[in-house]
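Q: Could you write out the predicted structure for this multi-component system? I'm mainly interested in how the pieces pack against one another.
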Amino acid sequence: MPLDPGFWALQALNALQLSMLLFLLSIGLTVIFGLMHFVNLAHGSLYALGAYVAAALATVGGYWTGFFLAPVAVAGMGILLYSGLIRRMRKSGPMAQVLVTFGLIFALLDLTRIIWGDIALAIEVPSLLAGRVSLFGIDYPVYRLFIIALGFAIFAALALVLKRTQIGAMIRAGVDNDAMAACLGINVERLFFIVFCVGCALAGLAGAVAAPLLSVTPDMGLQILIPTLIVIVIGGLGSLQGAIAGSLIFGFVQTFGAVLAPQLASVLIYALLAAVLVIRPMGLFPAKG
Amino acid sequence: MLDLTSVASGYGETQVLHGLSLRAEQGRVLAVLGRNGAGKSTTLKTIMGLLPTRDGTITLDGQPMGKTPYDIARMGIAYVPETRDIFPSLSVRENLEITARRFGDKDSPWTMARVLDLFPRLGERMDNGGTQLSGGEQQMLAIARALLMNPRLLILDEPTEGLAPIIVKLIHDKLMDLKREGLSMILVEQNFGFATSLADDVVVVSKGQVVWTGSADAIRADEDAQHKWLGV
């Protein structure tokens, strides 16, 4: 195996691209959990739904229609789930929440099967982002660079909102201590609803950008769920830094593991997860110190 | 202004308040005294909606109290908990802004400038993290944050707990200033001298019920009641 600089650059970019996809998924899930201690295992299914909606819209109106409307559609699904199920389950404890959202995974899986069938859908990379560019001595697909840039842009935007705005301060206060936040007149339930919708939209966005890279299949949501949960546990619950750090760690360990130590690759990330749980059970950057 | 009538409340299966009734009057300070575990903090948490009222009623100026802490805060009740509950992820400034931005404007009685005037120490610490403060500074911040809600009624749970005597004196003087301005307050306190010098009215709680009601002067004079209910 030639381990020249080009190899490292290529794998590093691949790792970054996987990390950014995981970041888009984990950020919503982790803040929802941090704010309301609500476990939404169906988050991965919303990602799959985003991919399907994007694929369906792409055949009608082109890639960008899907890119912009899939997050909206998935946020709409989030509103339905919230008002139909989640709001009623807010006080019913983690066991019931895990069971119901786990059941939702299968309900949404079959829903996508009924609508789109079992065959994998493919979606074209948009012409604007087709082709490759020369970077660090290698040719790299523009579309993958786009995903990396998009991930960093979303991270920067969320960091700005969380650190600099009043609603960001309210979200941080709610994650720190939701009961006290409510006593100070913060409508924590409405805050949770907003965060939940944004989280759903980001999951839909992740699905839409992943669609041209992966084949769009009904079980893609289930496949991404475990990596997303690992990211959250490694990073620490409820925090933006945790989500980005966990995503980067997962992306790099997974990508480099697969090429440098293929026989260990599937174990490596779980070994890391176990190590984090032993050394820092709360994760690397938990919101509650 | 605030009436509790035969209120029952508690944690999970454990009932702590057994038909507790009390009244806090407009423009006066009510001290709630009693031994550890008597139900003082539980009373305040029940008023704030942090614990459900299982029986009895709570009214504010005759209106039934809101169901959730959010509704209750919106009715004009500000709460300073025993644990102060400063948000660790927020700076001192953000801890204050979180109430100032939504409960006040330039013409409100309490503005950022005015609470910093009341507690100048906070002004020097504005960009510190909420948890980098000493216990006394955290208490000042919790009170300042509550005042910025421009409340009709301020509820304080053990404001002197764990504080050095000089800080206790400072908190006492500041609360005295607030009392002179006519702010209605309910105060839960272990420090008998602190409580009775601030309070107009006193109720003593034991085993989840009010066992003594009277003025601050009366409880200071009533050594039997002090001995029987407070172990002073």
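A: Regarding packing and overall arrangement: The two ends of chain B are 30 Å apart (CA to CA).
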